[in-house]
């Protein structure tokens, strides 16, 4: 079998030849041009040699500078990548701090409430996630369902507090800015399931802040909130704030629910209806507060958080 030819000696000889040529060119370029007839012949040759030496020197200098610039560019790119990652981490940290600050403000503004903080460890939507495995590429929020987490609810979240933390069925759950998320529906020793307001079986008594009219807000299979049972003679318009009324003793008074987005009832109907924009983004819940004391029937209206 023929052995591959080694190019190391050839490369060494080539570099040696280039070095000799550079030395010769340097010598010729710096040698004073003789005066006399020979200068007519030697002068142009010496000029050519000088120009050739300059070109070769510029070539190697440019090559060295190019290598140096490339190394600097790669170093800068690594720094930019690191700074971008750090910026993402800082923004994530800032968002978390804001959430905790909102919850802390609520706790400080409402000392009559006993509160338990909780992290959201699972989000489920049985309608949206029907037929989807958590590992599917388009699983989305379906991938956040806790393995083996069976629930009677269509839309719910799982939180990391339970019986050991004093959690009971029916306790209200709020997010940052005091907005109502839903009520505790199932409790185990270490976790709980919170039935969201958008669950089709959710039904709460509410009041309109401006007109003081009473009504109900219910979840729907489409995942929207529907304001119902508002008397026909009461004023109802987009932008009206909706809070819990406390009627029935199942929830404290004045917990924000959302705002009227669009009135959908007709004047000929006996009651009025409207689509409600929730006061919280249910897809982005990360931390919540469970109101454990006083019980809803004993609770005073909470102090709104600015």
Automatic annotation (TrEMBL):
One of its GO terms (biological process) is regulation of cell shape. Signal peptide: none annotated. It comes from the Bacteria. One of its GO terms (cellular component) is plasma membrane. Pfam families: MreC (PF04085). InterPro entries: Cell/Rod_1 (IPR042177), Cell/Rod_MreC_2 (IPR042175), MreC (IPR007221), MreC_beta-barrel_core (IPR055342). Residues 66-110 form a coiled coil. The keyword Ubl conjugation does not apply. The keyword Lipid metabolism does not apply. This is Cell shape-determining protein MreC.
């Amino acid at each position: 079998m023929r052995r591959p030819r080694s190019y190391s000696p050839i490369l060494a000889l080539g570099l040696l030849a280039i070095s000799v040529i550079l030395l010769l060119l340097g010598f010729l370029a710096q040698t004073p041009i003789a005066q006399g007839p020979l200068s007519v012949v030697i002068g142009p040759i010496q000029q050519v040699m000088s120009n050739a030496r300059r070109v070769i020197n510029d070539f190697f200098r440019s090559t060295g500078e190019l290598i140096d610039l490339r190394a600097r560019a790669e170093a800068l790119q690594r720094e930019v990548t690191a700074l971008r990652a750090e910026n993402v981490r800082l923004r994530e940290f800032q968002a978390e701090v804001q959430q905790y600050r909102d919850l802390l403000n609520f706790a400080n503004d409402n000392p009559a409430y006993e509160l338990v903080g909780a992290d959201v460890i699972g989000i489920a939507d049985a309608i949206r996630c029907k037929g989807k495995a958590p590992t599917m590429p388009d699983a989305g929020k379906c991938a956040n369902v806790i393995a083996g987490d069976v629930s009677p609810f269509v839309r719910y979240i799982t939180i990391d507090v339970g019986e050991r933390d004093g959690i009971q069925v029916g306790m209200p759950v709020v997010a940052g800015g005091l907005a109502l998320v839903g009520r505790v529906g199932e409790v185990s020793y270490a976790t709980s399931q919170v039935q969201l307001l958008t669950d089709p079986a959710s039904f709460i008594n509410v009041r309109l802040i401006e007109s003081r009219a009473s009504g109900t807000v219910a979840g729907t299979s489409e995942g929207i909130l529907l304001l119902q049972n508002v008397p026909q003679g009461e004023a109802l318009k987009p932008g009206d704030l909706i809070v819990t009324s406390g009627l029935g003793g199942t929830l404290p008074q004045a917990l924000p629910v959302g705002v009227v987005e669009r009135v959908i009832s007709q004047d000929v109907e006996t009651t009025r209806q409207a689509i409600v924009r929730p006061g919280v983004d249910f897809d982005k819940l990360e931390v919540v507060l469970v109101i454990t004391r006083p019980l809803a029937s004993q609770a005073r209206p909470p102090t709104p958080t600015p």
